[in-house]
Amino acid sequence: MQKTKETRAIRYSLDDRIYNCICAVLTIFTVVVIIYPLYFVLIASFSDPNIVNSGKVMLFPEGISFKGYERVFQDARIWRSYLNTIIYTVGGTIFGTICTVMAGYALSRDDLPGTGIIMRPLIFAMYFSGGMIPGYLMIQSYHLLNTRLLMIILGSISVYNIIIVRTFMKNSIPSDLYDAATIDGCGNWKFFIKIVVPLSKPVIAVMVLYIAVMHWNSYFNAMLFLSDTALQPLQVYLRELLMFTTTMTQNTTLLNNPEALQVMQETATQLKYAAIVVSVLPILCVYPIVQKYFVKGVMIGAVKG
Known about the structure:
The protein is mainly α. About 75% of the residues lie in helices and about 0% in strands. It has helices spanning about 15-45, 50-55, 65-75, 75-110, 115-125, 130-140, 150-155, 160-170, 175-185, 190-200, 200-215, 220-225, 235-250, 250-255, 260-300.
């Protein structure tokens, strides 16, 4: 006789069904609100700028044009800014991840003397800072103005991230594992590299994503501490590009020449959307790689302690 498995469907109450429907509607609405602006920027970068400015581009590109991308690929400054951003992001992510994981591991160890004393000033510094002017004077005193090293170091280490790593390691790496490794002759460094790091891949992936996105989107620090345009990142260039149209419309010379003003506005619109698409693509490509670790790493380190 052939055995058949009985499938028992879960029966939800009316309240559960209503709750699930509300959650589904809110989730779909949230996804649309988040995704549509990205989709609009993408289709606008391929559309005729006059149609985009008239508000007729909604779901599909109109008047396909690649002039914006042609100008992006021909602009030497945007590629130089792109290279600077890659250098700051890669260097800052490596530096920040190493320091954050090592600090989180050290603070997760119960045998580290003065852990509670160390955590108090760290938490205080997470909420309160010295301010912009003292920070600028301190950086100036270390002769780090207009240097790539400053952009790599600045903002790479966050107390919030250290707390996430510390909580993850406290909950995931038992002290008995360290005791067993010590009996086998394993020292602190070997235990950290051979055991802690492999077991902490989820939270390390989260830190890589957090720090990389922060560096990729950072522009305020570059505006304050980098006066040399050859060192400025991509986001500073995009900010100048987004402000270009506003500045241009206030130009009295162009106001007296409507045709030239319209051509400049069309060029700025296409270049603006194309540059945004080009700048967002790398992060969108990196996220799927670490996505499988993302939820696990965040949830395990979500309870701060």
